[in-house]
């Protein structure tokens, strides 16, 4: 298997020893260092001790559940998280994305696909930061891209890493309609994946930047296509 450039340390959290072993072997073949945890408590201790570059996290864990573990990971920083979920756990999967998880893989899964997802998420997380001086605005919405800060009416918004990236991409391309597949590739770096990931993040972003998320003024649904960002200041151009 092709070795990943700049491979780092991965924490794999799953209560099934067979799954842990398979995932470990495939990740190690791609050059990653791998730590293993069978439950939420052990995962939190390992996370604090080893500072992994990415976490592969099963949602169904004994003791402290996967969603709570994900929440605590995200509270401690921006470590990327790839969730493992069963086919029927759609509500938990959506909640995990809302907590800030970067991707998910449904069981039973292809270990090769998981390695590809891990590599894709890490590449996005390690992408070179934008120029420190870049800023974007739309009316009372202000985005300092270099500092990764966003304010609305002077109040700083709490955006997940992916919500921030999605907002920046939309602000840089006002007035253009994008399909979910285009946004998935441009913002997540995936050429494949579940388009509901985009839907969930758009809904969360609307809740944070729209006065009335049910009647959005900025993030517009283009039926049969996807989404478009309409600037409220009416310029139709990036604001720098």
SS-based structural class?
alpha/beta
Write the H/E string, N to C.
Answer: EHEHEHEHEHEEEEHEHHEE
The CATH class name of the largest domain reads Alpha Beta
Uncertain runs: 236-240
Overall 3D form: elongated
**Count of individual domains:** 2
**What is the name of the CATH superfamily of the largest domain?**
Response regulator
Strand order of the largest sheet: 2-1-3-4-5
Q: Describe the biggest sheet?
A: 5 strands, parallel
**Percent in helix:** 25-40%
Tell me how many strands there are. Answer: 12
What is the arithmetic mean of pLDDT? 85
Domain OmpR/PhoB-type: 133-231
Keywords: DNA-binding, Phosphoprotein, Transcription, Transcription regulation, Two-component regulatory system
GO biological process, one term: regulation of DNA-templated transcription
Modified residues (4-aspartylphosphate): 58
3D structure, described in words:
α1 (about 15-30) crosses α5. The protein folds into 2 domains: about 10-125, 3-Layer(aba) Sandwich (Rossmann fold); about 135-230, Arc Repressor Mutant, subunit A. β3, α3 (about 65-75) and β4 (about 80-85) form a beta-alpha-beta unit. The chain has 8 helices and 12 strands. The protein is of the alpha/beta class and about 240 residues long. The protein is about 40% helix and about 20% strand. It is elongated, with a radius of gyration of 18 Å. A 5-stranded parallel sheet has the order 2-1-3-4-5, sandwiched between helices. A 4-stranded antiparallel sheet has the order 6-7-8-9, covered by helices on one side. It has a 3-stranded antiparallel sheet with strand order 10-12-11. One of its GO terms (biological process) is regulation of DNA-templated transcription. InterPro entries: CheY-like_superfamily, OmpR/PhoB-type_DNA-bd, Sig_transdc_resp-reg_C-effctor, Sig_transdc_resp-reg_receiver, WalR-like, WH-like_DNA-bd_sf. This is DNA-binding response OmpR family regulator. One of its GO terms (cellular component) is protein-DNA complex. It holds the Pfam family Trans_reg_C.
């Amino acid at each position: 298997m092709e070795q990943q450039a700049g491979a780092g340390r991965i924490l794999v959290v799953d209560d099934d020893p067979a799954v842990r072993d398979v995932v470990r072997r495939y990740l190690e073949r791609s050059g990653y260092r791998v730590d293993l945890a069978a439950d939420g408590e052990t995962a939190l201790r390992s996370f604090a001790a080893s500072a992994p570059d990415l976490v592969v996290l099963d949602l169904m864990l004994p003791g402290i559940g996967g969603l709570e573990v994900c929440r605590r990971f995200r509270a401690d920083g921006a470590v990327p998280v790839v969730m493992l979920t069963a086919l029927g756990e759609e509500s938990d999967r959506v909640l995990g994305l809302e907590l800030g998880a970067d991707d998910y893989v449904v069981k039973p899964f292809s270990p090769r696909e998981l390695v590809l997802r891990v590599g894709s998420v890490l590449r996005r997380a390690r992408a070179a930061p934008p120029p420190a001086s870049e800023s974007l605005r739309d009316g009372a919405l202000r985005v300092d891209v270099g500092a990764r800060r966003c304010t609305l009416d002077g109040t700083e918004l709490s955006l997940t890493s992916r919500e921030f990236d999605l907002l920046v991409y939309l602000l840089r391309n006002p007035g253009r309609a994008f399909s979910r597949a285009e946004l998935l590739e441009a913002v997540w770096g995936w050429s494949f994946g579940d388009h509901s990931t985009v839907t969930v993040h758009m809904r969360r972003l609307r809740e944070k930047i729209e006065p009335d998320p049910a009647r959005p003024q900025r993030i517009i649904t283009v039926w049969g296509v996807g989404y478009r960002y309409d600037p409220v200041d009416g310029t139709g151009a990036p604001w720098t």
